[in-house]
Amino acid sequence: MMQYVEGMIYQRSGFINGHLGFEDGIITEIYRGMCPGNIEPLAKGVVMPLLTNCHTHIGDAIAHGRKLTGDLESLVAPPNGLKFRILRESTPRDLRNAMHRALIDMLDTGTGTFCDFREEGLQGVELLKKAIGELPIKPMIMGRPKELKYSRSELSELLTKVNGIGVSSISDWDYSELEKVAKETKAKSKVFALHASERIREDLDMILDLKPDFLVHMTKGSNADLETLSENKIPVVICPRTNVFFKNRPNIKKMLSKNVTLVLGTDNAMLNSSNLFEELRVGFELANRTGGLSVSAEDMLIMAAVNPKKLFNATDHLNLGPGTPSNFMVLELPMDKPEYALVRGVSADKIKFITIGKSVWKK
Ligand SMILES: [Zn+2]
Which top CATH class is 51-312? Predict the structure, then answer.
């Protein structure tokens, strides 16, 4: 049976005031004006596509809420940063439960797809799959070898279970080992990605020789680096809250001015909640801290709702339109210029309706 929602509907080109009809997990129509006839919509408000969280490490959700002091290396660098010690010390069951809760938080705050950089090799990937279970969220799983070295048998098995390989950074690895990992990943037509120039500037030529599909952070990238990424059409995932925690800062305005494709990620679950709207909020604030408005709310929303498909050559359309999956939410927010309310922080209670394909997550 056809069902409807009504209100300000997000489109890449701007919101339209209208109604959206959907049936059997597919959007069938979007038109201006109210629902046809006297049909009562399921929900009214701001209609947004579900967001894509392009960089998570939900394995460390178990440490969320712990007192965390120290620099980037002592907290999150492999193999002996606090995060890796906690991962080793926790039982699989506790890890799985903590991940499951983080995934529910994501769904509750309007994220429909997430890309996780899963640690702990094959075992880590299996655990994440168990944590997802029957949840309707769509995963992009980036596994990695258990240790910072290449093993043909480990990698070939891993590659049958993941969407791609996502490693820490060239600074953590012996480059020749990482080269073998990257080469084999690309040879199997899987996604390869890594953290880059987060704490210190790393050699972009060496990074690009690994043929990455996207990079994470680039907070310390030079102007020339950003231009190279733009020319090579390599998207960058920015994680504003993590950057702020470690006293880094993504220069969003500069990245956009160089035409770098940007997307957003909530990064380490031990530091940040899984609510991608928080990343939008902090990113928007950082980008406009110098006064005036240099990065618009529209530009920020594109990072969370439109650009992610460029990372995975996803066939899913993130923009809402007839024939696309009914992956959307309806929010109770001011209807006048909703793009600004959307980048000022949205909590789960503001989201009144969430549907993901054929399943209704919240109503
Ligand atoms: Zn990360």
Answer: alpha beta
